[in-house]
């Protein structure tokens, strides 16, 4: 399932995948996802679209803010 909301995405990352959303993990993912030239980012956009990438970036930022 491709998450359509922050709540779905958060559950997917933390519960289904078992990945703790730490500041370090969030920062590392944002470094990649916010780099339009990064191969992984280009692949993400080709698979899921720019709009979904924008959502995921915002969700990572929101998760980071919740940790503060």
Properties at a glance:
about 70 residues, mainly alpha, 4 helices
Order of helices and strands: HHHH
Helix content: over 70%
Structural class: mainly alpha
Q: Which residues form runs of ≥5 with pLDDT under 50?
A: none
Global Rg: 12 Å
Number of strands: 0
Mean pLDDT over the residues? 98
Into how many domains do the coordinates divide? 1
* Silhouette: globular
Quaternary state of this entry equals single chain
From the N-terminal CA to the C-terminal CA, the straight-line distance is 29 Å
Total number of helices: 4
- Strand residue percentage: under 5%
Q: Mind summarizing the main beta sheet?
A: none
Describe the overall structure.
By secondary structure, the protein is mainly alpha-helical. The chain has one domain. Helices cover 74% and strands 0% of the residues. The protein is built from four helices and no strands. Helix 2 (23-33) runs antiparallel to helix 4 (50-67) and helix 3 packs across helix 4 (50-67). The longest helix has 18 residues, at 50-67. The radius of gyration is 12 Å and the shape is globular.
Task: Summarize the entry for a quick read.
The chain has 68 residues and is mainly α.
Topology:
Elements: H1 6-16, H2 23-33, H3 39-48, H4 50-67
């Amino acid at each position: 399932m491709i998450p359509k909301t922050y709540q779905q995405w958060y559950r997917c990352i933390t519960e289904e995948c078992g990945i703790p959303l730490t500041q370090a993990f969030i920062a590392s993912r944002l470094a990649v996802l916010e780099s339009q030239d990064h191969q992984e980012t280009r692949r993400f956009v080709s698979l899921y679209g720019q709009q979904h990438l924008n959502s995921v970036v915002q969700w990572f930022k929101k998760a980071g803010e919740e940790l503060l």
